[in-house]
Amino acid sequence: MSEILGKFSTQSYAFTPTATVQNWIGGEWQDASSGDTLDVINPRHGQAMSRAPLSAAADVDRAVAAAAAASAEWKQWPMRERAQVFYRLRGLLEAEREALAWLISHENGKIYAQAVAEVDKAIECVEYGCSLPNLAAGTQLDVSRGVNCQVTDEPLGVVAGVTPFNFPLMVPLWMLPQALVGGNCFVLKPSEQVPLSMVRLAELFVQAGLPAGVFNLVHGGKATVEALCDHPGISAFAFVGSTAVARSVYGRACTAGKRALCLGGAKNHLIVVPDADVELTAENVVASFTGCSGQRCMAAANLVAVGDVDHIIAAIAEQAAKLMPGTHHGAITNASSIDRIKGYIDRAEQGGATILVDGRGKRGEEPGGYWMGATVIDHVAPDSPAAKDEIFGPVLSIVRVPNLDAAIALENSSGYGNASSVYTTSGHVARAVIGRVEAGMCGVNIGVPVPREPFGFGGWNDSLFGHGNITGWDGFRFWTRPRKVTSKWALQKDTTWMS
Ligand code: NAD
């Protein structure tokens, strides 16, 4: 077991400091050129558990050179052999499931059970990569007499990805299986807040037999990301993070001539109508807005209460009030996020909203750390910041509307378009809502409507810049380009202009 992971085999929330991480370039651990580092804070304890280098353009350049050097050989491997690496990786992830979950829990702050769920979802993404040789056979057709056209999906070369803090293992594995099985070499920049899971993944890739240089890890922040956007040796760039950054890096990468797909933030609406099942709705809504402490792009943010649903709101408030931070959901990523989340609750209260459940004073048992309890705010004004902005914490804003048309209009007034759900026992209502909401991922009686493999993950509008989804078949298409080969092996007597 590696030094990094060995520390997390203790299987507890006890504070665990670990080594400073390095970049992984061409199969070697390397220091960044500048020597600048950033503390990696364990959100549950509020203490520095590691340090991550802040890499500069020169480090990105080194990683791209290593990836380019590996590319010539890697793209010659048959896809079936490239997929074998992911079969082996799957076994390694399964074997380390618990220790990996503890590692995620320590660097991200989520509770162990929710970290296990992340590992399981990451494994599903790897399984999709394993299946690619059975899906990517390409096509061919005799397009005229004696003339055949064949289409194959070819790698782009060196590609890059940038990922957020909230899913340290899963989000990178939204990208890597399709990109690598597709024959590319990758430069990944994980969030500087959670670099450790990717350090372990680099080690597991070695055990799985991935050749040096195919996967490279460059840690850092804004300057590192901008160097990736600008680097002429990178053909495609994927990003997952907040909308402001997604929009800006999408523009920058496209300007530099890259194919880009950049997923942004969210403000997800759950529309609840009076005929909804009370137990199902309450349990599901609470799980959605408190899971990962609301720090996920699929979390419920606004509950749009259509007509009289007071009985359902009462059940939601009752369940949410029982949740304890540290036990039922984890810590918040850092101190400034606590200030941001509290600020939204304070302003909503000052604006006349009713705080049904107040999480501002709740905390986990540890003396330090960044904590916030589940919070339910009723009668939130539809044009207030609590109803419009991404709060990214365990906060549910309830906006009251008189009818379904008003609910759909409210949903569609949001610039975001990640997820939207409706809670009803009526198929007619469900169809009416799903057919009209501006959201890429919709749910019926499901609070976190993630389209699991083989379906592709991706929102609309300000939640996604570019085309298609990041996972599933769209992901494979994003990381590859079609080659069309038209061939003829004999002179045709009955020739046409096409032959
Ligand atoms: P973030 O945008 O702050 O950071 C994401 C990545 O961008 C990190 O690697 C970070 O180093 C880098 N970065 C930060 N500021 C930058 C800048 N100015 N220029 C260039 N790069 C920069 O996001 P976060 O706080 O890590 O993650 C939370 C956000 O991610 C939320 O908005 C959430 O909704 C979103 N998210 C979206 C999805 C999705 O699928 N749409 C999934 C997960 C998270």
List the helices and strands and how they pair.
Layout: H1 3-6, E1 23-25, E2 28-30, E3 37-42, E4 47-53, H2 57-74, H3 79-95, H4 97-108, H5 112-135, E5 139-144, E6 147-155, E7 158-162, H6 172-181, E8 185-189, H7 196-208, E9 215-217, H8 222-230, E10 236-240, H9 243-255, E11 259-263, E12 268-272, H10 278-290, E13 300-306, H11 310-322, H12 335-350, E14 354-357, E15 375-378, H13 385-388, E16 395-401, H14 404-412, E17 416-417, E18 419-423, H15 427-434, E19 441-444, E20 460-461, E21 464-465, H16 472-478, E22 480-488
Parallel strand pairs: 7-8, 7-10, 8-9, 10-11, 12-13, 12-18, 13-16, 15-16, 18-19
Antiparallel strand pairs: 1-2, 3-4, 5-6, 6-22, 11-21, 14-15, 17-20
Helix pairs in contact: 2-8, 3-5, 3-7, 4-5, 5-6, 6-16, 8-9, 10-11
Organism: Enhygromyxa salina
Family: Belongs to the aldehyde dehydrogenase family.
Domain Aldehyde dehydrogenase: 29-484
CATH topology (fold) name of the largest domain = Aldehyde Dehydrogenase, Chain A, domain 1
Measured as a percent range, the helix fraction is 25-40%
Distance between the termini: 61 Å
Ligands bound, unique: nicotinamide-adenine-dinucleotide
Class by SSE composition: alpha/beta
Low-confidence stretches: none
CATH superfamily of the largest domain: Aldehyde Dehydrogenase, Chain A, domain 1
Average pLDDT = 96
Radius of gyration: 24 Å
Strand composition percent: 15-25%
Instruction: Tell me which oligomeric state these chains represent.
Output: single chain
Number of domains: 2
Number of DSSP helical runs: 16
- Give a quick account of the main beta sheet: strands, pairing sense, barrel closure: 7 strands, mixed
Q: Give the CATH architecture of the largest domain.
A: 3-Layer(aba) Sandwich
Strand line-up across the major sheet: 14-15-16-13-12-18-19
Rough outline: globular
- CATH class of the largest domain, anyone? Alpha Beta
| Annotation, overall tally of beta strands | 22
Protein name: Methylmalonate-semialdehyde dehydrogenase
Pfam families: Aldedh
Keywords: Oxidoreductase
GO molecular function: methylmalonate-semialdehyde dehydrogenase (acylating, NAD) activity
